[in-house]
Amino acid sequence: MKEKGKVLLLAATILGLTGPALAGTVAEPSGYRMDAYRAPVPDSLRGARVVSTGEAEELWRKKEAVFLDVMPHTPKPANLPAGTIWRDKVRDDIPGSLWLANVGYGALSRETEAYFRHALEKVTGNDKSQPLLFYCMTGCWMSWNAAKRAVEWGYSSVVWYPLGADGWEEAKLPLEENKPYVMKDQVN
């Protein structure tokens, strides 16, 4: 049994599935993850295709999917005292990605759900068969939740990349600084 474990670990390492993302022991829940979002994730998502870094890279290079980062973002508070210095956290993303901030929580406000639905409609041109690749960070449930929600909304080509931007960076693939997507009528 010890040898089988070593073989599985070696195979996972070759495929780029190490650390928290190597989660074969995490059962896929029936609902959304509601808290403790940075934790080992399942290795599956019903209705979606789960991809490795190599598979994500191939989709990216061939431009065969819309890449959607769902990393949370805290905007600048509206009522900061005058003179307060605020620095937005820099987010390095897979080039060409759309950053849909905060759509990966287990429960979404009406506003956030509307933002998410609007963005998906816009990037797909209302074509629910358009491939959508969701990611965040390694060992983060945000992308799992967002991809699950897209499946439930009827999107038929949902792809989940559980290693996220850190897996991409670990593979020495390019990253670019990104800002959250803002709808034209959205107020920050």
- N-to-C SSE string, H for helix and E for strand: HEHEEEHEHEHE
Strands, total number: 7
Judged by helices, strands and strand pairing, the structural class is alpha/beta
Strand percent estimate:
5-15%
Mean pLDDT, nearest integer? 87
Regions with little confidence, pLDDT below 50 for 5+ residues: 1-23
Main beta-sheet strand count, sense and barrel state: 5 strands, parallel
Instruction: Give the proportion of residues in helices.
Output: 25-40%
- Count every helix, treating DSSP H or I runs of 4 or more residues as helices: 5
What is the CA-CA span between the terminal residues?
Answer: 55 Å
Query: Can you tell me the CATH architecture of the domain at 45-72 and 97-183?
Result: 3-Layer(aba) Sandwich
CATH superfamily of the domain at 45-72 and 97-183: Rhodanese-like domain
What is the CATH class name of the domain at 45-72 and 97-183?
A: Alpha Beta
